[in-house]
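Appendix C reproduces, verbatim, an entry submitted by the partner laboratory led by Prof. M.T., so that reviewers can inspect both the input and the predicted structure.
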Amino acid sequence: MQNNLFCSPDKRVLFLSATYPGSVHDKAICDEEAYPFPAGIVLDQDAGYQGHEPAGVEVRQPAKKPRGQERTAEQKVQNQQHSRQRVLIEHALGLCKRWRVVRDVFRGRVDERRDTIMLLCCGLHNLLITQKQAVTS
């Protein structure tokens, strides 16, 4: 299963795309869905979104290594900072997939159930974050 998701710095899922079966490229999902981004936001994208630059949005992506050369020290520092942001998104996705119903092969007859299952798991994930914040505060 393949989904795109947008999350906040506290790993709360803010948006979940439709579920695509098999291996689908991240950028292909973005191109097909044509997400309406609010103007002025910052998108931290990984290398899977190479060439995806929506209008009115600041896009941050890791600097690629030039052919036959090395990255500059500044590019390496920027890539490290970018990785620190991206790992939050990867953790949020991993936490949403903690339930076996999402990780295992779905053998149901109706394909739309995959969307519902992933949406419910993201909702449970957000609920757990809310409960955790309520306990710690």
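The chain has four helices and four strands. Additional entries are available on request from the coordinating office.
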